[in-house]
Amino acid sequence: MRFQDIEGQREVINRLTATVDSGRVSHAQRIVGDEREGSLQLALAYLQYLCCTDRRHHEGGDLRADSCGQCPSCRKIASLQHPDLGFVFPSPANGSPSVSADDYQAEFRDFVLATGARGTLDEFNQSLKGSVSTSMIRATDSANIVRRLAMKSYEGGWRMMLIWHAARMNPTAANELLKTLEEPLPGTIILMVDGGDRQLLPTIESRVQTVRLAPRDTAADMPGLAAQYAPMLVDWLRLLFKLKMKELSAQVDKMAALDRQQLAQMLAYAQEVMRECFLHTAAGVPVTIGSGDDRFDSLFPGMITANNIELVCDALNDAQHAIERNAYAKLALMELSFSMSKALKKR
Predict the structure, then answer these.
(1) d(CA 346, CA 338)
(2) DSSP at 45
(3) What is the span of the domain harbouring residue 173?
(4) Of 173, 190, 212, which closes a domain?
(5) What pLDDT is attached to residue 294?
(6) Is 337 within a domain?
């Protein structure tokens, strides 16, 4: 799987490739997004890029880099046969407490390849023969993860574990995995993929770096989102440079008055705006924000650079996550305001 095969998600992809190229790869990461948005595709493409021995970097365009797709590591990961890549996923017990994902590895690989890594967990369960009970990730799976990651790398590179629907890990399994998350061996990466249908256990969530995919239609619906949210977003961004608390608090009140779905849409729109601004600054790609404010459209893109794009997107991701978890909207937006203000000054 290559990044070029994934529809959209360019801002997330470019951030991931930049962290790999800079050598700042977190040992425990989590990608949150529906399979239809490409969460599993992105995870596989990321691991392929991580192991690629001939990475390709592009001048211009909206994709900064990709794996070559031809080296031995790329071919092995694309076929899901890399010896240093393991898979854990919810599996049906079917009356046996000792069952684990290891019992369904062949079925999982066939399913992922057949669906182009876009199949859902329900579809995977339906593809299994025999009766299927509620599936989950058990302590047996965590023990297998610990055992596998303690082994020497077959090819001398990364030891990788991809955990699909990690939020279906039961508490016992989570506790088994904690020590490995806290004290990983060098050259280890645990990549979790969630559909967002459940919350990850707090003990696990606090130890992983989370990346959230943008809704698939965000970029396509930019004109509609701009018409709805641009005036509010522009007013807020301008206040971040002044930090006049009375005015900022009043603006945050207006934003917090939106319902949670509208807030999520506005934050997704804001992330797409930041992506376009960064591409304009880094590669001269024309900005098509369409905010209706010509002065803002011409001056603001220069504020988003390689020095602050990650900070900006992390702040927006954290706010969106907090709101999804029913956090007090005004508090989440005020914290976002302070984080964004600091980030914008680091240009």
Answers:
(1) 13
(2) H
(3) 3-212
(4) 212
(5) 80
(6) yes
